[in-house]
Write a structure and sequence with these properties.
This protein is α/β, with parallel strands linked by helices. It folds into 2 domains: 3-209, Rossmann fold (3-Layer(aba) Sandwich); 220-370, P-loop containing nucleotide triphosphate hydrolases (Rossmann fold). The chain is built from 15 helices and 14 strands. It has helices at residues 10-18, 26-36, 51-64, 85-98, 116-124, 133-141, 158-163, 167-176, 192-201, 232-242, 255-267, 281-293, 326-333, 354-364, 403-406, and strands at 41-44, 78-81, 106-109, 128-131, 152-155, 182-187, 206-209, 220-226, 248-251, 272-275, 298-301, 316-319, 343-349, 369-370. The strands form 2 sheets. It has a 7-stranded parallel beta sheet with strand order 3-4-2-5-6-1-7, sandwiched between helices. A 7-stranded parallel beta sheet has the order 10-11-9-12-13-8-14, sandwiched between helices. α3 crosses α4 (85-98) and α13 crosses α14. The longest helix is centred in the N-terminal third of the chain and has 14 residues, at 51-64. It is globular and about 65 Å long. The two termini are 42 Å apart.
């Protein structure tokens, strides 16, 4: 199938051709016709499969015939909610590229930057608004944004949005829009809490799922290193010196961990940049631009960067800290081996993370190969760390074993 067969209009097809796209991806092929029929949808597909175009193209198609000739007085008719600033920026870039041969206008609002310039743009009127939840609600409280004319509401990366604690904001935003609207929910996975949200705010939605969302990225060779926590820095340096080359993303669990690893790599002569939620938007954007341009080849991040950010040609992903949520592992390694390419992932597992490995392998239905030939092996007798209740003081209770400790003497990998 090609894009012409999806019945998109000439201006949009022209913009698609200029972007170099010939054929729709599976999620685009399935979602675009349903959206054009004005139906609500719940769509899941692995990161990097073209979800943004899957909703951007049909929205532009729907708005095109009713577009206003000038900017003044335009009403917000399509609202896209994004969990992160980086993802919101990417979405807006796509909307601008696809609408270049139309008179449709779009803008972006998010926190961490001055609010007054965003107010000025909104006063001029726009057709499409891309926003993060907090800044959108701030602007609405100040009577800068009117959502009474929204025809299509998009909740992008819904599972990440809920993981970040935005569920109440999302529900409030949905109530601020007209009751008769089209709602499109896109997510990498559909866990129970996303299912609950969909059931509460969508009207008899069509379910679309592109297979392989939890099987692990195709084309990614996955290696697991069991290593003491104290030796992870040295193992990382060892692999960077001897094994891992090219453009690399390293994931850490905490903002503090991101900063510490960046300092270590810079001291050892590596060109590294980092982002996390405590950095200003200008710092985050500068780091992202440096990585995209090649001024730095190592990008260190918390999971805010594991989805949505449009970075091409990633050679390797390092899971410095294993994620406690197994789906997050899939999102992380999905940053490499995009568009049918190949890539590598390297995961460091200390004694306290062994149970995460079990959960990840259960999700992806695959045994991750263990690399035993490295200079910082973990004692094979090291046991998973278990949480023990404390009684008043700081010492753990002795002589009492939990039921969990008696169960299954299985291998933990």
């Amino acid at each position: 199938m090609n894009f012409k067969q999806l019945h998109l209009n000439r201006p949009i097809l022209r913009a698609i051709a200029e972007k170099g796209y010939d054929n729709p991806t599976p999620i685009q092929e399935l979602a675009i016709p349903v959206i054009l029929e004005r139906k609500d949808i719940v769509a899941s597909a692995q990161t990097g499969t073209g979800k943004t175009a899957a909703f951007a193209l049909p929205i532009l198609q729907q708005l095109y015939d009713k577009q206003d000739s000038g900017k003044k007085g335009k009403k917000i008719r399509a609202l896209i909610i994004s969990p992160t600033r980086e993802l919101a920026i990417q979405i807006e870039e796509n909307f601008k590229a696809y609408s270049t041969h139309t008179l449709l206008t779009s803008t972006l609002v998010f926190g961490g930057t001055a609010i007054d310039p965003q107010k000025e743009i909104l006063k001029k009127g726009v057709d499409i608004l891309i926003a993060t939840p907090g800044r959108l609600l701030d602007l609405h409280k100040q009577d800068v944004i009117n959502l009474d004319y929204v025809e299509t509401l998009v909740l992008d990366e819904a599972d990440l949005m809920l993981d970040m604690g935005f569920i109440d904001d999302v529900k409030k935003i949905e109530r601020l829009c007209p009751s008769t609207k089209q709602t499109l929910l896109f997510s990498a996975t559909i866990p129970y809490k996303v299912e609950q949200l969909a059931n509460g705010i969508l009207d008899n939605p069509t379910r679309i799922e592109v297979s392989g969302t939890t099987s692990g990225a195709k084309g990614v060779s996955q290696l697991l290193y069991f290593v003491p926590k104290k030796d992870k820095n040295e193992l990382c340096l060892h692999l960077l010196r001897n094994t891992i080359k090219g453009k690399i993303i390293i994931f850490r669990r905490t903002k503090y961990g991101v900063d510490k690893l960046e300092q270590t790599l810079l001291k050892n002569g590596y060109k590294a940049v980092s982002i996390h939620g405590d950095k200003s938007q200008s710092m985050r954007q500068e780091a992202l631009n440096d990585f995209k341009k090649g001024d730095a080849n190592i990008f260190i991040a918390t999971d805010v960067a594991s989805r949505g950010i449009d970075i091409h040609d990633i050679d390797a992903v390092i899971n410095f800290d294993l994620p406690s949520v197994p789906e997050t592992y899939v999102h992380r390694i999905g940053r490499t081996a995009r568009a049918g390419g190949t890539g590598s992932s390297y995961s460091f597992c200390d004694a306290g993370e062994k149970n995460y490995v079990i959960a990840i392998q259960k999700l992806i239905r695959k045994h991750i190969s263990v690399e035993e030939n490295h200079p910082f092996p973990l004692d094979p007798k090291a046991k998973p760390i278990k949480h023990v209740k404390k009684s008043g003081g700081s010492k753990h209770k002795k002589g009492r074993k939990s039921n969990r400790s008696k169960v299954k003497k299985k291998r933990w990998y």
